[in-house]
Structures are given as C-alpha cells and as structure tokens.
Design goal:
It contains 4 helices and 26 strands. The protein has 463 residues and is mainly beta. It is elongated.
Length: 463
C-alpha cells in the first residue's frame, strides 16, 4: 500500500471570493482530506519508493503522487535465440558482477567445389571479420581462436538458443580429441583492441588436402553434399583465457572457410574457393556464466526459466543481461489506490526514472544500451511492446552532484489504461535493444538509497 503525506500551500489569496470559487476550493480541500485519511489505511510495501509530497503543478493544478509502491525484480527469460543473429561471439572474460563469461560459436558452411583432376591443394584458412564490439579487458592477450571440426551438424528449421540447457551442443563436437582441432600449429595469441579487423586463421595442410580429395571424388558438388561431408565448424577460446568476448560477422560471401590451390600447368596463379558461413538459422553462439560465488548476481544463478528474484536479494539492484536472458520486471501493484482521490480523476502525466549505479560501469564493458519496454503477464512473459527504445542519458545527480546515468520514460497511457481497466496491471519487462548480446546493465531499485527508482504521477481530481 501507499503512505501519502500531504501538504498544500495556498498563496496570494484575494478576498472576497465568489461563492463558486469557494465551493471549488472546498472541493479541493475535501479531496486532500480523503488523501490524508487514506494515509492511515496504507502501509509500506517491501520495495516502496520513499515518502513524497503531492506538489501542485502551477500550470495544470495537478497533484504529484510519488509514493506508489514499485516492486522490482530480476527475471530469467533464457529463450534467447542466436540462430537469427548476424553475428558470432567468441572469447572468455571475467565480469565482476556475473563471474566468468564464456562464448562459443557454431556454424555450417555452404558452397560447392568440383576441381579438375590435376589441381593441387596449397593451404586452408578460416577468414573472419571482427567489428568494434568487445566485452572484457582488451589489454590482455587471448587465443584467436580454437577451430574444431564438428561431428554433428546444427539442427535446421528450429531456433537455436544462447542457453546450452535449451540447445545442448556439447555432443556436437569433441574438443578433447586432438584430431578435431583444425588449427595449423598453435593458435595465434594477441590483444583484441576495439577496432575492426580481419582475422585469418591458418588450418592444417592435411585438412586442405582432404577437401581437395573429397572434391575430386565428387563429394562436394553441392552445398548439401558439402554439409554431409563437413558437419560444421566450432569456435572457442582457450581454457586459460581471461580477456574479452569478440563479436564476428556471420554474413559476407567472402568470409568463411577458404581452400587455396593451384594448377600444375600454371603454378604461379593462385586459385581459391570460399565455403561461406551459412545463414538462415545455420549458425549460432552460446554464452555461459560460471564462478559466480561471491558476486552480486549469485542469487540469480539457480533461477528456473521465467523465475524471478526480488531486488532485495541482489543488493537492491536489478539486472539486465541479454545473452544470459536476464531482464528486469517492474510492478505497480497498488495503482488502483489512485482512485481513492475520487471517481473523476485525470492522469495528466506519469513517468519512471531508473538510475544506473555508477560503480557498476566499467571501461571494459560496453556503454549501457537502449532499453525496450514491454508489458508483462504474471508469468514474466512479454505481452506487447510498450516502447521500442529508451536511451541511456547522463546528467548531474541531485543527490551526489556527480554525473549520473539513467533511463526515463513516460507511462502515462499505461496508468490511464490500467485505471480504466482496459489493460491488466502486471507491469513491465525491461530488456535491451540487442537482446542476444551479453551487454549488461544494472538498475537501482525503489529501495536503493543512492540510485532510487522513481515513479511520478500527476493527478487532477474534478470531483
């Protein structure tokens, strides 16, 4: 329930009043008396916003109510599809909030190859393009990357998820078998600065010879034959890496598995064939989090799908992390208490401000992304998109006088519809505009004293 403390300042009063003005004023005072009586019947909820004042808007005469309880929690929606992404993700990084993050990628290759009998294989390589997205410490050296031959092709015509529980791929390749490692010698180790680059990974010469032999035997004449012969490619980092996750492009016809060869009749002219990364659901990546003991998100580690943890269990913060499937849920359970202001009330505006605690930001973590606000049902499932993009902005904090990042969005139409009964008041689910990426952010809850989530509603009573 809500604890409302009411104050009202009347200034510049001029007598005599007309009878109509006197009646109107009595009506306003009566409305305030109802609010005062309401205060005695209400109690604080577990994550209530602090006691506020019904300030009067000078232009509209609306009263500010900022004491409505807002319950916040972190929920797990682990059905994050990555098979439709334009990207691959590979690497290992330590996040002080989520522990050890590991990203692996899997893909089929497509194309065909029908060489003439005298062609000679020269080499094979995997050609990949990285953009500027990094998650982790790019000053550290890491492996770029281990390339494995898959034993089983990725399933088609079904979504592939970031969660290994929903798409178990452990049996699709065997990293313990050295024969499945395709790298020529030890994989390259380097720092992955946040600049776009092309990565060329040399592969075993024996693998190049094998592809040439298969092509001459007519086993690679079509893309289907190629995929029957070569189930796919898996990319991973080394077990001892602790640096950054790197985003790679999964598109581009000139990127993928390259076979270099020549004709003995013209050995100075290099020839090549590209087996490109297949699109249309034939690639995916998975992200996992381990070693979370002692981290702020340890209470989230055992969450079942669609389960939730109240902000009070996670330091009065809530979390959003795309690839792991964490979202923030906001609920306004006592919204109907506004009706106690009278039968004829008008909501002129309502908005929510959620702050990002400064100590959760890092130079090694991408800038907080834009949010998507969706309405929710009681099972923590999204119903409809309420706002497609809410940007992260910074300003001076009124509490600390330091730069503070936050999100602010209007919920006027939602409050109006909930009070009218045209929508069910189950609150909102907050996620990022790039839900498949591990980019994360932290939001202060309603009971976070330094970064308090705030709901402000302006109400006019016409009784």
């Amino acid at each position: 329930m809500v604890l409302l403390l009411l104050t009202m300042t009347l200034t510049a009063l001029t007598l005599p009043w007309s009878s109509s003005k006197l009646l109107a004023t009595r009506g306003q005072l009566l409305g305030l008396l109802v609010l005062a009586l309401l205060a005695g019947a209400c109690s604080k909820g577990p994550t209530e916003i602090g006691v506020g004042l019904p300030d009067v808007n000078a232009n509209t005469g609306a009263y500010l109510v900022d004491t409505l309880t807002v319950k916040t929690s972190t929920v797990l929606r682990d059905s994050v599809v990555t098979s439709g992404s334009s990207y691959l993700l590979v690497g290992r990084a330590t996040d002080p909030l989520f522990g050890k993050l590991t990203a692996k990628s899997f893909f089929r290759v497509g194309g065909s190859f029908t060489p003439v009998p005298d062609y000679v294989a020269d080499s094979a390589a995997l050609l990949l393009s990285a953009d500027t997205y990094r998650y982790g410490d790019t000053t550290q050296v890491q492996t770029l990357f281990n390339v494995y031959r898959m034993d089983t092709p990725l399933p088609l015509n079904q979504p592939l998820f970031s969660s290994s529980k929903l798409t178990p791929l452990a049996g699709y390749y065997n990293p313990a078998n050295p024969d499945k490692l395709l790298n020529a010698g030890s994989p390259r180790r380097a720092r992955v600065r946040p600049t776009a680059f092309t990565l060329r990974i040399p592969l075993k010469y024996s693998f190049a010879q094998e592809l040439m032999t298969a092509g001459k035997a007519g086993l690679l004449n079509t893309s289907d034959q190629l995929q029957a012969y070569l189930a796919g490619i898996a990319l991973s980092s080394a077990d001892n890496d602790d640096a950054a996750l790197v985003r790679l492009s999964a598109t581009g016809t000139d990127r993928g598995l390259l076979l270099y060869y020549h004709s003995p009749s013209d050995p100075s002219t290099p020839l090549s064939t590209v087996f490109s990364i297949e699109t249309g659901g034939a690639h995916c990546f998975q992200v996992s989090a381990t070693d979370r003991n002692g981290t702020p998100t340890q209470p989230l580690a055992g969450l079942p799908s669609l389960g939730g943890v109240d902000a009070s269990a996670t330091g009065f913060n809530t979390y959003i992390e795309g690839a792991l499937g964490y979202q923030t849920r906001l609920e306004i359970p006592y919204l109907n208490d506004l009706k106690r202001l009278g039968q004829n009330i008008i909501i002129t505006s309502a908005q929510i401000t959620a702050e990002v605690p400064t100590n959760t930001l890092s130079q090694y973590i991408p800038t907080p992304p834009s949010l998507v606000i969706r309405t929710s049902n009681v099972r923590n499932q999204p119903i409809a998109t309420y706002l497609s993009s809410v940007d992260y902005k910074t300003s001076l904090s009124p509490v600390t006088a330091l730069e503070q990042g936050s999100y602010t969005w209007a919920v006027t139409t939602y409050v109006q519809a909930a009070l009218a009964g045209s929508v069910t008041n189950n609150g909102f689910l907050l996620s990022t505009t790039t839900p498949e990426l591990p980019t994360r952010l932290v939001l202060g809850s309603a009971r976070n004293q330094l970064n308090q989530l705030r709901l402000r509603v302006y109400v006019i009573s016409t009784n």
